[in-house]
Amino acid sequence: MERIPILKMGDSLLVSIQVDMHDRLAMTLQDDLTGKIVATRAKGVLIDISSLEVVDSFIGRMLANIAAMARILDARTVVVGMRPAVAITLVELGLSLTGVRTALNVEKGMELIKRTADSEDERGGSRAS
Amino acid sequence: MIIAPRLKLFKNNPFAWRRSDVTGNVQSEVAALLGQQESEILGDWLRTQMTDPRRSHLLDEKEVRRQSGEFLSLLRTAVQSGRADDITAREWDELRRLLEDLSRGRARLGLSPSQTAMFIFSLKESLYPRLRAAFGTDADRLSSSLSLVNQLLDRLGLYTTEIFQKGREEVISRQQQEMLELSTPVVELWEGILALPLIGTLDSARTQVVMENLLQRIVDTGAGIAIIDITGVPTVDTLVAQHLLKTVAAARLMGADCIISGIRPQIAQTIVHLGVELQDVVTKATLADALSVAMRRLGLAVQKTAGAAGKPPVARAADGPELA
């Protein structure tokens, strides 16, 4: 069966969606990703959707769900590379993905994950002291 | 296969047959009249047009003469073809093309639609006496020929008005499009900082263009912060606020933060009175404030250099002794 590869990079997981998403694929990705977060104890998840041309309400909701699930498993999700047309569509659909962090490209997304991890470390450290 | 017997039925109908015969006769007679007395009609018509007090001095007499002559001969061929009932038929193509050119040309000269339509309506004056002379003894044929000519010229006159209107509408829609494109510039204030100065009322169509432009520029420049300046937006109602929030949300989905600036005191009051929630959006009173916030976020700082700050006093000190 078709699957979307999940790559581990340091503390983070990298998911690059290169094919058109259909609902089954999205559900599989959700399962795989949550499993992988637990298995690798990842702190960050980066989802690259720069090749995705069509995002419907289901996929939009799935992105929001993945972010929420990852949050519970103590990982931060960043969605990167959303196309202008997709952004407009999602806003028109009323899905502004409030719980999801976004960045312009993979580079900035990784930076954002690193920065959040650092600031949380600091906060954790200060609380401990 | 199915149509043929029906046609036959229709032809067997004595009413239909007789009616078409009469109108057909009148049509060919009118066409013959137009052909025989073409030059006299043309002379009369031109005289009417030239002596019309509402005539525009912008019209070239030679041009009017050419157009009138062409119109008459085309009218004759078209009436001869027997389709006087429908000016949208193929037989009228050439005449319609002539009228389109004429109508557009006169619109460009700045003539009113009624002045353009009068070109055709004035032909009636020269046609009626001739029809009367030709069918004077036969009331039936006179009335049907009059009504034929009347209807025909009315339709043609209205057609010129329609073309005139269409031309105007084309100009308006083109200008609207140009205004849309002109009024939504996205400027790069600094590396990574875009500004979108909005001027004029925001409606749905404009917001769409604004949003698309902004998002495309975010992709092109890789900017992380966009400042939307609404100093030039006269009023902000719930709809405009919603459009702004949508733009902000879309930019955020792309990974760029938005700052709204240029909020005038009255607009701040309106927004609060309307109960619009702008909580998640950073708002600043002026573009300068927004820019300094943006620069701080990017880790940039603007500093006064000693040289620039020291220059004016130095210059004054240098001037002092000279004046003294």
Identify the notable features of this structure and list them briefly.
heterodimer, A: 129 residues, alpha/beta, Transcription Regulator spoIIAA, 5 strands, B: alpha/beta, Globin-like, 8% strand, rod-shaped, disordered C terminus
Strand content bin of chain B = 5-15%
Helix count of chain A equals: 4
CATH class division of the largest domain in chain B: Mainly Alpha
Largest interface: A-B, 21 and 20 residues
Q: Which consecutive residue ranges of chain A, at least 5 long each, have pLDDT under 50?
A: none
Describe this structure in words.
- The complex is a heterodimer of chains A (129) and B (324).
- Chain A has 129 residues and is an alpha/beta fold.
- Chain A has a single domain (6-128), classed as STAS domain (Transcription Regulator spoIIAA, 2-Layer Sandwich), CATH 3.30.750.24.
- Chain A has helices at residues 23-40, 57-72, 84-92, 106-128; strands spanning 6-9, 12-16, 44-48, 76-80, 101-103.
- In chain A, helix 1 links the parallel strand 2 (12-16) and strand 3 (44-48).
- In chain A, helix 1 (23-40) runs parallel beside helix 2.
- With 324 residues, chain B is α/β, with parallel strands linked by helices.
- Chain B folds into 2 domains: 3-168, Globins (Globin-like), CATH 1.10.490; 187-302, Transcription Regulator spoIIAA (2-Layer Sandwich).
- Chain B contains 12 helices and 5 strands.
- In chain B, strand 3 (225-232), helix 9 and strand 4 (257-261) form a beta-alpha-beta unit.
- The radius of gyration of chain B is 35 Å and the shape is rod-shaped.
- At the A-B interface, helix 3 of A face helix 8 and helix 9 of B.
List the SSEs and their pairings:
The complex is a heterodimer of chains A (129) and B (324).
Chain A: E1 6-9, E2 12-16, H1 23-40, E3 44-48, H2 57-72, E4 76-80, H3 84-92, E5 101-103, H4 106-128
Chain B: H1 3-12, H2 14-36, H3 38-51, H4 61-80, H5 93-109, H6 113-135, H7 139-182, E1 187-190, E2 193-199, H8 204-221, E3 225-232, H9 238-254, E4 257-261, H10 265-274, E5 282-283, H11 287-297, H12 306-323
Parallel strand pairs in B: 2-3, 3-4, 4-5
Antiparallel strand pairs in B: 1-2
Helix pairs in contact in B: 2-4, 2-7, 3-4, 3-6, 4-5, 5-7, 6-7, 8-9
